[in-house]
Write a structure and sequence with these properties.
The complex is a heterodimer of chains A (about 270) and B (about 400). Chain A is α/β, with parallel strands linked by helices. Chain A is built from twelve helices and nine strands. The chains are: A alpha/beta (about 270), B alpha/beta (about 400).
Chain lengths: ~270, ~400
């Protein structure tokens, strides 16, 4: 199995935009993935809507709610991605809370994620040591189980994570939830340094990165940058006009691309 | 029990964002320390006695017993300070938070009983307190909102999701992730990630421990059946736990069947739910076929939670505790019956346990000894029951 996710970090700082599947519709999600890959994304993170998204702030909560109200399910997301796999060039990462995956069946989810062309999976409420059978199921299908670390994760724990981490490690940039306006915490270099001592795959920083300046600063430290709420807010603002929506998303993503390219490449 | 840390059989665990793992580790470590610390235990014991009014009486309900033709005792948790068992846990956890050097207390609340208890304990300890409450619940339980504010707490309206307890819990967890360094999260029931289900149970065990010695003194023997209501399940687990090894003591947990199981408008997590993950632990859960969490319903605001404590899931699957349910209507009948026969207005939550005692009494042996946990008093429910009472009530 080729390491699609790690390769996405090889040439430049990886830009990883996040969108919620089914907002404003599943068809439009595929279209948005195309727009994102055309305007500089290296990986696209696709969120599976959930009724109780604990790690998310109001913007992504609302996107999740809109998608659920339109009847979006995990099955529907996987089916849409599978049917449109030929249109998607960038590796996809699926982000979903654990309960819908558990109900779907861990094995079934892992194998259908692979069939849908999903390169990696992030489950924000499943610590790496809580249900190892899930990460094994992903591994068996060649799908990367992407782990998250937080600024307060202890070094001993990071070293244990190293054996499980696949694809890249998602470094939460702050104490908080997605869309936090304060932006990444100070002393990120010490934190990123601590993670790097134990993890030898790429590191992406996410949470609270909503403009070019924050994206550039994050890219100076990490190998990739995740931008979610700022993008989802644009989608929220133009629910009815998909043309305007796509153009806004394109312009914003291109601006982030420029910011990342201007960050020093180590 | 499973040897995996923080599990009761297959249930429990820590399904939380990574940021909370160090906080849960710290909490577990500190809790282990204070459990062995006699000064902590003595302080808690003293406050439970002089501040909360413990031990609460075990009352022989003479006229109810006559009516049911079985001997029925009530464990009077309604006589606690703040009017319910919630203070046992709130006080214990706030003292623990103080030991941990935390300056800021947060809590979730549904009907407001836990919120009031936490605001009360925080006021006494001089700690800043923020209570998350669904905007809809704030409207329905305006009196408790006023009480919390009077006690110095900030009540934060939650407008996300269904605007009820489950969403207030999500919001409290989000606050905790954001302010984890100086904040202690006081969970109100035996739910949440490990070690919360254990901590809350231990602080509520006082209910069962007192009951055990009181019934031995009154009757010279252990009861045949213990009956308690189950929402998240804190009063019931505290009541049952000290009796788990006494194999001849039967135990019944009563969930809220709302308008009836077949209507879908209920809160029967154990009797009608499926195993899932919510608010940090694996347990039975009310959910749709896609794993989205459903909104629970009951006339009793303290029981309409779509999850349940993981230890209850374990006790259900092991068969040690029997779980059943009673409807809004049955609970209202019990509410009125106890008021009229005993001069005790029970909480609607506790009325579910009473209703089960009423239904079950004829099925028990003639000399059966029943103890019902009267977890709270019913003053707070007057506005919920008024429409029924105006209709002439239910017949006694």
């Amino acid at each position: 199995m080729m390491k699609r996710l790690q390769e996405a970090f090889a040439k430049r700082k990886a830009l990883i935009p996040y969108i919620t599947a089914g907002d404003p519709s599943l068809e439009e999600t595929v279209r948005l993935i195309e727009v994102l890959q055309e305007s500089g994304a290296d990986i696209v993170e696709v969120g599976v809507p959930f009724s109780d998204p604990q790690a998310d702030g109001p913007i992504i909560q609302m996107a999740s709610k809109r998608a659920l109200e339109r009847g979006v399910t995990l099955e529907g997301v996987l089916k849409t991605l599978r049917e449109n796999a030929s249109r998607v060039k960038v590796p996809l990462v699926l982000m979903g809370y654990y309960n819908p995956i558990l109900q779907y069946g861990l094995q079934r989810f892992a194998s259908e994620a692979k069939d849908a062309g999903v390169a990696g999976v992030i489950v924000p409420d499943l610590p790496f040591d809580e249900d190892p059978s899930f990460y094994r199921a992903l591994e068996d299908e060649g799908v990367d189980g992407i782990l998250m670390v937080a600024p307060n994760t202890q070094e001993e724990r990071i070293s244990r994570m190293a054996t499980f981490a696949r694809g890249f490690v998602y470094c939460v940039s702050l104490f908080g939830i997605t869309g936090d306006k304060r932006g990444p915490a100070k002393n990120l270099d010490e934190y990123i340094g601590r993670v790097r001592r134990h993890i030898n795959i790429p590191l992406a920083l996410g949470f609270g990165i909503d403009d070019q300046k924050k994206a550039k600063d994050a890219a100076a430290l990490a190998d990739g940058v995740v931008v979610g709420s700022a993008l989802v807010r644009l989608i929220e603002e133009s629910q009815k006009d998909v043309h305007a929506l796509e153009e806004k998303v394109r312009a914003f993503t291109s601006s982030l691309r420029k910011a990342l390219d201007s960050a020093a490449f180590e | 029990m499973s040897d995996r840390r923080g599990y009761f059989g297959d249930f429990g665990g820590r399904y939380v964002p990574e940021t909370l793992i160090p906080a849960l580790d710290e909490l577990e470590k500190m809790y282990q320390e204070v459990r062995r610390d006699s000064s902590f235990n003595e302080e808690l014991k003293r406050l439970l006695k002089t501040y909360c009014g413990r031990p609460t009486p075990l009352y022989f309900a003479e006229r109810l017993s006559e009516r049911l033709d079985r001997r029925v005792y009530l464990k009077r948790e309604d006589l606690n300070h703040t009017g319910a068992h919630k203070i046992n846990n709130a006080l214990g956890q706030v003292l623990l938070a103080k030991r941990m050097g935390k300056k800021r207390i947060i809590a979730e609340t549904g009907a407001g009983q836990h919120g009031v208890a936490v605001a009360t304990a925080s006021a006494r300890e001089g700690l800043e307190c923020h209570v998350y409450m669904g905007a809809e619940d704030m409207e329905r339980q305006a009196l408790n909102v006023e009480k919390m504010r009077l006690l110095g707490a900030e009540v934060v309206p939650v407008t996300s999701g269904s605007q009820t307890l489950k969403d207030a819990t999500n919001e409290a967890i989000r606050d905790w992730v954001t302010n984890v360094k100086d904040t202690y999260y006081v969970i109100g029931s035996v739910v949440g990630p490990h070690p919360y289900p254990t901590i809350v149970r231990d602080f509520q065990r006082v209910i069962g421990e007192e009951t055990k010695s009181q019934i031995l003194e009154a009757e010279g023997r252990l009861p045949d059946v213990l009956i308690a209501c189950v929402g998240g399940g804190s009063n019931s687990i505290g009541f049952f736990h000290p009796f788990l090894e006494d194999e001849h003591v039967g135990m019944v947990g009563v969930e809220a069947a709302g308008q009836g199981l077949s209507t879908g408008r209920h809160a029967c997590t154990l009797t009608a739910g499926k195993v899932g993950v919510l608010h940090g632990s694996r347990s039975y859960l009310l959910q749709d076929p896609y794993g989205q969490v459903q909104v629970a319903y009951s006339i009793s605001a303290g029981l309409d939670y779509p999850g349940v404590g993981p230890e209850h899931s374990y006790l259900k699957d092991s068969g040690r505790v029997e779980y059943t349910s009673v409807t809004d209507h049955e609970a209202l009948e019990a509410f009125e019956l106890l008021s009229k026969l005993e001069g005790i207005i029970p909480a609607l939550e506790s009325s579910h346990a009473l209703a089960e005692a009423i239904k079950r009494a004829p099925l028990l042996g003639e000399d059966a000894l029943v103890v019902v946990c009267l977890s709270g008093r019913g003053d707070k429910d007057m506005s919920s029951v008024r429409p029924y009472l105006l209709k002439g009530g239910v017949s006694i």
